[in-house]
Amino acid sequence: MNKIIIAVDKLPVFGPYSTAVEADGFIFISGQIPIEPATGEMIQDIKKAARQVLANIQTILQTTGLKMTNIVKTTIFLKNMDDFTPVNEIYAEFFPQEPPARSTIEVSALPKGALIEIEAIATRK
User: Fold this and answer.
1) 3-class SS at 100?
2) Mean pLDDT per 10-residue run, the chain (125 residues)?
């Protein structure tokens, strides 16, 4: 197996993990939280937070020469399932056609007090 670590200088990493890893044509993107890269601030408005997380994922994909359309699976972790509808509105902006498979899970807490975290799997094929 050929494994390539993908690092993105613009995005912070908070522990012993890679931002993304490519293996056998798949890119596994670690969970992204809504941190504004320019300021390092955590976004607490759910719509703005969802938009920032998806923009961060888009940035990661761009460093590999891919687009959001290359994503085949996402997992969304929400601090509050009441945020499901507003998150869907933003999510639809990033995936207007043929959205990836997806799971959405409510969790009791997320890193750094985030309201949302999204992980993704993309493919080069």
Assistant:
1) coil
2) 87 84 96 91 96 97 96 98 98 97 98 96 93
Residue 88 CB neighbour total at 10 angstroms: 13
Determine the length of the chain.
125
Q: Token match 């993309």: residue? A: 122
Q: Which domain holds residue 10?
A: 3-123
In terms of DSSP bridges, do strands 101-106 and 71-78 run parallel, antiparallel, or are they unpaired? parallel
In degrees, rounded to 5, the angle at the alpha carbon of residue 45 between the alpha carbons of residues 43 and 49 is: 55
pLDDT tens, position by position, 43-53: 999 999 999 99
State pLDDT tens for residues 56-81.
999 999 999 999 999 999 999 999 99
Kindly report the pTM of this predicted structure: 0.95
Classify residue 39 by its DSSP letter. Answer: T
Domain count, the chain: 1
Give 44-58 as a DSSP string: -SHHHHHHHHHHHHH
**CATH code for the domain of 32:** 3.30.1330.40
